[in-house]
Every structure is written in structure tokens, then in C-alpha cells.
Design goal:
Layout (H helix, E strand, L loop, with lengths): L4 E5 L2 E5 L2 E3 L7 E3 L3 E5 L4 E4 L9 E8 L2 E8 L7 E6 L26 E2 L3 E6 L4 E7 L3 E6 L9 E6 L3 E2 L12 E7 L2 E8 L5 E11 L36
Parallel strand pairs: 10-12
Antiparallel strand pairs: 1-2, 2-5, 3-4, 5-6, 7-8, 8-9, 11-18, 12-17, 13-16, 13-18, 14-17, 15-16
């Protein structure tokens, strides 16, 4: 090809139009409508199945947003000018060799306040979750992460600090249950970490009051006495006590 227009976009070179001739007779040429694509990565040349609308030689052009704008001054040996536009990026049915990296799912929003005695289950996406547990009265609180199907990396009482019962959980390392004793009514926060994996969390809370309600009497008093005591006594003592207290 002689007098073709060539332009590079990315890793490809596009060669549009030009004059075709034989090696033995370069004086006898003709203009062409062909589009050749040179891949600089694979070092291959492909003749596109698409063609320019008219034959193009002695061309000038430019690229704007993946479109090649071509201005030709010679079409089929006639001194004619035409402006051609051809899009270099086409949709393909072939799958992408390197798939787009999926966006990471954000860590779940920390659950809203939990009233002590409630349980919660939800998604875990590799980051620690903070729980706020409301204690409505003075007493003890248990935060239990043992129902979680994933192993517990750490469980901590973070604010305000409570009095830990070290016999149940010390709030560090791999403790999966914490018992706080002697708390005043308020909101207590816990941080649960199940490691870098994804899955589900499941927790349970339980509280007890420092002053529990007394159990009601099983056998309450029956109705009023049917036969009340007579007033006054019908047979009073005849004489006073001889030996007073």
C-alpha cells in the first residue's frame, strides 16, 4: 500500500486506504477501501472485514474518542475530497482475558442498640463489628458469641469498661463470652472480631437484676373470717390476776 493513512491507538496500529499496486509495476496503482489492523503485542496484521465508504488515497486524519476522522483528496483517481469516520473499538463476544476485579463488599454496619436479652445474627465481612447493648436496670450482663458459626478471634468490652468475671471470659484473645458484674443501668459496647474471612455472626445477650422481684406467695390468705370474734367477751375474768407480770 502507498500513501495510506496510519495511526496508533493503544497497542494497535490502524492503516486505512492507500494506493494498491503490484511489485512489478508501481506506476499502475489504484485506491483502496481496506482497513488493516496491526497488533503490536502479537505482531500480527489483520485485514478488517469492514471497508471505508469510498476508496481513499493521499489522506490526512486524526483520532477523537476512539473515532478516526479521515480526509481524503483522491478517490478512485478523481480529484475528490471526502471526510470519513470509523470507530476503532467494537463490541466483542470473546470473554475478557483478565476479568475486572470485583469491588469488595463493605463491612456490615454495626447493629443498632440491642436491648439486653436479645440475640442478633447477620453478615460478617472480615472486619470487627461493634455492638451496643442497653442494660435497663442495675445488674449483671452476659455477651455470648458462642452461637457464631465462625471461630472468634477476639471479643472485648470496649466502653464503658465493666467488671469482668475472669472465670467466664477475660475480654481478650479468643474469649467467646464475657460476663460483666455489678453494672449500673446504661449502654455497654462490645467489639467482635471473627478474623479476615466472610460468613455470618450470631450473638446472644442475657442480663440479671441486682434486686430481683420476690416470688409471689403460692397460697394467699383466703377471704375474711366468716365468724368474727364477739365483742365484748361474754365471760370476763372474775377477779384481777393475783400475781401481776
Amino acid at each position: 500500500l502507498l500513501d495510506a493513512f496510519a495511526v496508533s491507538i493503544g497497542t494497535k496500529v490502524y492503516v486505512l486506504g492507500g494506493h494498491g499496486c503490484t511489485a512489478s509495476d508501481t506506476s499502475n496503482y489504484w485506491t483502496v477501501t481496506s482497513i488493516h489492523v496491526i497488533d503490536t503485542v502479537t505482531n500480527t496484521v489483520t485485514l478488517s472485514t469492514e471497508r471505508l465508504a469510498v476508496s481513499a488515497g493521499n489522506t490526512a486524519g486524526t483520532v477523537v474518542s476512539d473515532f478516526i476522522y479521515l480526509f481524503t483528496g483522491d478517490t478512485g483517481g478523481v480529484n475528490h475530497y471526502a471526510t470519513l469516520k470509523w470507530q476503532t473499538t467494537k463490541a466483542t463476544d470473546a470473554p475478557t482475558k483478565v476479568p475486572t476485579t470485583p469491588a469488595l463488599t463493605p463491612a456490615p454496619t454495626s447493629p443498632a442498640n440491642i436491648i439486653c436479652g436479645e440475640s442478633k445474627t447477620g453478615d460478617y465481612n472480615g472486619q470487627a463489628i461493634t455492638f451496643s447493648v442497653v442494660l435497663a436496670y442495675d445488674g449483671d450482663m452476659t455477651f455470648d458469641a458462642r452461637p457464631s458459626p465462625m471461630p472468634v478471634s477476639s471479643l472485648q468490652n470496649i466502653a464503658p469498661p465493666g467488671v469482668l468475671d475472669n472465670g467466664v471470659g477475660d475480654g481478650n484473645a479468643a474469649s467467646n463470652v464475657i460476663l460483666l458484674q455489678g453494672l449500673t443501668a446504661g449502654t455497654y459496647r462490645f467489639s467482635l472480631n471473627l478474623g479476615s474471612g466472610t460468613g455470618q455472626f450470631s450473638i446472644a445477650t442475657q442480663c440479671s437484676s441486682d434486686v430481683p422481684t420476690k416470688t409471689p406467695t403460692k397460697d394467699p390468705t383466703s377471704g375474711p373470717t366468716k365468724t368474727p370474734t364477739k365483742i365484748p367477751t361474754m365471760d370476763p375474768s372474775v377477779a384481777p390476776t393475783k400475781t401481776p407480770t
